[in-house]
Amino acid sequence: MERALRDLINARLSNFKPSNSSIVTHGFSLLGMSDSVPEIGKHNSDVHIWHVPKGILPITSGEFTRWELDSPRGFHWILSERPLHMDLIPAEQKNVEIWGPDEISMFIGKGVMDGDLVAKSPIKKMEHTTTFLDEANSMKQSQLLRPVVDIATWKTQRGMEHLSSTPVLLEGRIWRVEGEIIGPKDEIEFGIWDLIEDPWSSTIVEMKDTLDLTEAPDLRIFPPPHDSWLTHDVLISEAARILDVRRRSNSPNPDKKDAVRSMLLQRWRFNKDSASCKSSPMHISGWLVHSERESILHGINGRLYET
């Protein structure tokens, strides 16, 4: 998480100066300084930026006091993966802005959606016979499907505001399908389609808007449950179901019969026999919800899955 925060802060703050040494004060790690942090309403004012890694227990007022005594003068922005103890009230701290796990999740999520957070980890290869769309795509950054779920709203609706959460990635795939659709009079049209496979939801849908995708950040990746990937044969069958279309007939010189026929929808079927498909890695937004038993929240369908 610290690496993702460093990357995002470096992208968001043009004058960010990373710390040259690993300064750790009572569990608070100094990431660096910036002379402007719009996220917390600080402009033209030096801000020390700190990170507190994930831990089991919340940050207490005692820990905060020990850090405060040894920290340098000035304003401080603390990004804590540990929740804040109820006796630590950030509003009472005049020179400190403290963000807990929920604020960090929203900060990283916004960075993902804005394209500021870019992954630097290598793409994992599939265990079975999967190929990339092309040689160029194999060198591109893995793609991320933008979330639909708002983590803060989701937790509020379920009375889980007290639980912390960490952004994660869930494995999925994008299939590039090339083939033909055949009309009622054996007309043939060649086409290329992209299908999104979500093995967590056991669904596959056509991707109609590339704006739903962005570059995946450097976060922990979770594989789907065992044996949940589609086989090649099943993928082709699903493609036929999705890509079969119905169109109105379009006669160049319609007579009365053609006029009536043109009001009816005619089937254009996907030709499974001549189709080919290739896949590339894709990730789905999600969160690791920290409770007595950690669960994975799917960023699209809003369901919880066991880790």
**What shape does the CA trace take?**
elongated
Total separate domains: 2
End-to-end C-alpha gap: 18 Å
Sheet with the most strands, sense and barrel status: 11 strands, mixed
| Tally of individual helices | 7
Query: What is the radius of gyration?
Result: 25 Å
Structural class: alpha+beta
Q: Element order, helices and strands?
A: HEEEEHEEHHEHEEEEEHEHEEEE
Roughly what percent helix?
10-25%
Q: Low-confidence segments, ≥5 residues, pLDDT <50?
A: 119-140
Content of β-strand: 25-35%
Beta strand count: 17
| Average predicted local confidence, pLDDT | 79
Task: Report on the architecture of this protein.
The protein is of the alpha+beta class. The protein folds into two domains: 2-99; 135-306, no CATH class. 21% of the residues lie in helices and 33% in strands. It is built from seven helices and 17 strands. The protein has helices at residues 2-12, 61-70, 101-114, 135-138, 151-157, 232-243, 256-262; strands at residues 17-18, 24-25, 28-34, 47-52, 75-80, 96-99, 143-145, 164-182, 188-198, 203-206, 213-215, 221-222, 245-248, 265-270, 276-290, 295-298, 304-306. The strands form two sheets. Strands 7, 8, 9, 10, 11, 12, 13, 14, 15, 16 and 17 form an eleven-stranded mixed beta sheet that branches. Strands 1, 2, 3, 4, 5 and 6 form a six-stranded mixed beta sheet that branches. β15 and β16 form a beta hairpin. The longest helix is centred in the middle third of the chain and has 14 residues, at 101-114. The radius of gyration is 25 Å and the shape is elongated. The two termini are 18 Å apart. The model is unreliable at 119-140 (pLDDT under 50).
